[in-house]
Each structure stands twice: as structure tokens, then as C-alpha cells.
UniProtKB/TrEMBL annotation:
Signal peptide: none annotated. Its cofactor is FAD. GO terms for biological process: lactate catabolic process. Residues 47-230 form the FAD-binding PCMH-type domain. Pfam families: FAD-oxidase_C, FAD_binding_4. It comes from Effusibacillus lacus. Keywords: FAD, Flavoprotein, Oxidoreductase, Transit peptide. This is D-lactate dehydrogenase (cytochrome). Its EC number is 1.1.2.4. The keyword Cell inner membrane does not apply. Belongs to the FAD-binding oxidoreductase/transferase type 4 family. PROSITE patterns: FAD_PCMH. GO terms for molecular function: D-lactate dehydrogenase (cytochrome) activity; D-lactate dehydrogenase (NAD+) activity; FAD binding.
Amino acid sequence: MTTTSLHVNEAIKELIDAIGKENVLTEMRHRALRSASAAPFPVHQWKKHLPDVVVLPTSTEDVIHIVRIANKYHVPIVPRGGGVGLADGAVPLRHGIVIDMKRLNQIIEIDEENMCVTVQPGINLLELNRVVGELGWWHPDDPAGYIGSVVGGRLGAGGFSLIGAGYGHTRDLVISMEVVLPTGDVVRVGEGGGRKVRKSSVGFRLKDLFIGHQGTLGVVTEATLELFPKPEVEFPAFFAFKTFDDAYKTAYELGKSGLKTLSGVVMFDERKIDYLRRDDEAFIPLPEWVNSVVATICYGTEAEVSQARKVIFKICEGCDGTYLGREMSEGDWASRHDRYHIPFHGRRSDGQVVLLSWHCEDAAINYSELPMVMKKWHKIVDKYIAKYDGMFDNWGMFMYTNNAFKPWGDYLTEIDIGVNELMMTDEIWQDWLKMKQEIAEVVIEAGGSISSCHGGTRPGDEEVVCYQELAEGQYELMKKIKRMLDPNNIMNPGKYLLDNAYREEN
Ligand SMILES: Cc1cc2nc3c(=O)[nH]c(=O)nc-3n(C[C@H](O)[C@H](O)[C@H](O)COP(=O)(O)OP(=O)(O)OC[C@H]3O[C@@H](n4cnc5c(N)ncnc54)[C@H](O)[C@@H]3O)c2cc1C
């Protein structure tokens, strides 16, 4: 699909009439700011993804007008939340309209009796928790990208929460949503027809269709979310190990413990420890013998957590783990949202600071496959590091409990790669895509999923996602649903190779 400037100009005129000139931005600086997201998209290609216009709706009615105008003129439309998604979901691949949701940021209702809150999608998680926190409540969606993420972006990306093993992930924490479909019709999706009902056996489970779709099926304009009472106690405990193998066995034992307050377990592999030693000023230096770390986090009442503490120490010390102390544990856990400095620099082994951006390949991997995936991913990344001097750096791996409400089974597994964008050329970009594809193919070999938190919409991932991971009929069904809901392919076209749905029809 291409947008002609004639169509765009007509659409812009109607947008100004519908939502006011002050909410329609056409200047280059506003468009350029919304052409990229927090991922190493090649800088020299940014211009290819400039939107023609940015709109800032302030009500559901504005969104309906915008979507109807886009649909009338067949102009692409891309929802944008905080723009910190790591799958380029908010990047307007086919230009058109970026619908920036940040002015739709009100809390509509706090329902303390039914323990839920209804919000507009542009509110960020920090502000939401500031307001409900004053009343003793907590919405525990807790990504490392917490500060920049807004509710609509969490839903669009189908996000992962660091404490999902205790409280569930984004999809488990939303009760119902209002969605403007690509034709401008409005639906409310949830369990059955109730706005605040958590379990119903009526109808299809349509809510899930609108979580993780990366803005390809509609625009969320309202969401009713879970509230939890603020826990009495937060208890992080970090343990050091001589080998990754010891840490790996410990994570299994922790999963088997049956502790209800255990809300997350994170393993750091040997390369991650190496990277943190040389690169992250915030990290408390570890003794030389430390090659792996297991971080645990518990939330709950004082009575529950004090018992859990004893079990955690017994398991970790029984597996040869050494407690890293309160300062290290609490300090590192408290800094889990402060990762934004990392994307901008790296540090070589000689201590020299270099300009590198952060790239994260994540996957959902079953526990049994983690050692194989770890070995193969490092081998792949190291091959490309050796090929291009100073272009890439291996920042090691984290593995986080990925199952909702249960700290076992599968792990969000990420390898962090430093990328020197200033050295990026078209040739290196092609190799970079090959590296990503090789990484994704290991995930398929392991029976995993190519992303647990960011989505599979990045170049290098998409082909493997659509034609390997979702090959057993799922991708075919996705195309049918896309065509049915979005007859003119206006919603975030180009993502998940869904343009194919329309080519095959013609
Ligand atoms: C340092 C760092 C750490 C991170 N850690 C995590 C982590 O631990 N867990 C995790 O899950 N993610 C993590 N991320 C990624 C990011 O935080 C999440 O993907 C987050 O959900 C993106 O939110 P956003 O508001 O920036 O969305 P955006 O990037 O703006 O959008 C994400 C997708 O949602 C769509 N979208 C946005 N708003 C709407 C709407 N109203 N209706 C429909 N579609 C919409 C967009 O089109 C896009 O496809 C991290 C990112 C960074 C930079």
C-alpha cells in the first residue's frame, strides 16, 4: 500500500476540521520525533519512515474521527504510546498518520470496592501508580522500561512484567478494553460483556486478540485494569554462584518450592557478569570467583515473606549460593527501571567508553532448553563480533521467570547486544539481520517463542515468526482476521508481513 500526497493532503484538511489545528502537527520536527522507537533502527534509514502527519487526540470521539478519515482516504495510521517498544511497533513503515496517544492520559475511575481502575491509554505506569498509590493501591505491571511505557503501549506490545510470576503480565492485569476498530466502530472487549468482570464463560475470548497486536487491529482508547493492595513487604535477595550451572539448578529448586510470594527469579549468565564488571558503573563490584547470580523477589505480608525468606536462603545456600547482602540486593532491585543510560554507551575491556546503542533479543524458552540456547546464541553473536571490529559487543544474558503466577516452566531469555550505529552500513545491516535470524532459528529449534515481551515485528524476526513459529495455521488465521477487521489495511501496515493478506486476496 502506498499513500499518495493528494490523499494525505485531503486527509490532513479533514483532520484539522475534525479535531482542531492544535492537535494536528505537520512540521518536520514533530514528525521526525515519531519516526523511530527505542531500537537500533539504522539511523540512515529513519527518513524512510517519516510520518506525513502527527495527531494528538484528546477523546475517544477524536480517535473515531481520525480512524474514519484514515479509512476513507486509505492513509496508514500507527498508534504510538511512549515509543519505547523494542520491536519497532510504533515505527510508521508506510508513512501516513502517527496517532500519538499521550494526551489521552486521564484516570477515568478508581473503583476501590471492586479493586480496579479505568484509564485512558496514554497514562504512563509511573503516574498511574503515583495516583493509585496515594490510596494504598498498586497496578503491578513492572517492565524494566516502566518509566517510558504507557498503558496503550503495554497492551499493544503484549508486555512482560518482571514480577509476572507473582502478579501476572500485562494481559493478566487488564480486565476489559474499549477499542476503536479500523473502520471507526467501537467495541468493548473483556470477559463476557461486563466491564469489570474477571471471569465469564460467555462468547469468544476477544480481549486477547487486542493484546500484542502491535496496533495492527485497532486503537485502544480505554482500559480497566487490576488494582492490588500495596504489599506490606518487598524482599529482594541476590545470591552469587561460581558457575551458571549452579545458578540454573537453583532456579529450578526455587520454582519447585511452592512459595506463593515468590514473584520473580532472574538468572545472570557468565557473560552478563563479565559485562556488568566492565561496563555498568551502577553495579557493585563482585569478587572474582562470582560467575553467575540468581536474583529473587518476594512480595506479600510480613508474616508470609518472613517465612519465604527462610525457604529461599535454605534453597540458595544449599545450592552453594552466597547471599550478596542487603545493600546489593535492595540497591540492584531498586534500579531495575533505571536502564536508560545503558542504550547510549558501552565500555571496552580496556575501560574506554564507546558509543553503543542497546539491542535486546528476547525469547520465551522452556527451562530444559536454556543451556542449549545460551551456548548457541553466544556463538552466533561472537561470530559477528569477530567479523566487524568495534561494531558489536556481547553484553550477556538474563533469564527471567516467564510463567504468569507460577515461577517455573519457561523463562524470558534475553541476550543484550551493543551496536555501534555510527558504523552501520547497508552491508553490515544485512549481516545484522542475518544474525537476528540465526538467533530466532535457535528459538524455533528449542520449541520456544521468538519474543516474550517485545513482539516479533522487527526485520530479521518477522519471517521466522510468520513462516516458522506460527506456521501451524496461526499465521493464516491472523491474515484472515486482519483482512476482516481492517479491509483497507490502514492499521500499522507492514507489521507482521500482514500486507500479504491483501496481496493474496487480489
Ligand atoms: C530500557 C528498556 C527496558 C524494557 N524492559 C521491558 C520489560 O521488562 N518488559 C517489556 O514487556 N518490555 C520492556 N521494554 C519495552 C517497552 O517498555 C514495552 O514494549 C512497552 O510496552 C512499550 O510501551 P510504549 O508505551 O513505549 O509503546 P510504543 O512503543 O509506543 O508502542 C508499542 C506498540 O503498541 C502499539 N500501541 C501503542 N498504543 C496503542 C493503543 N492505544 N492502541 C493500540 N496499539 C497501541 C504501537 O503501535 C506499537 O506497535 C523495555 C524498553 C526499554 C527501552
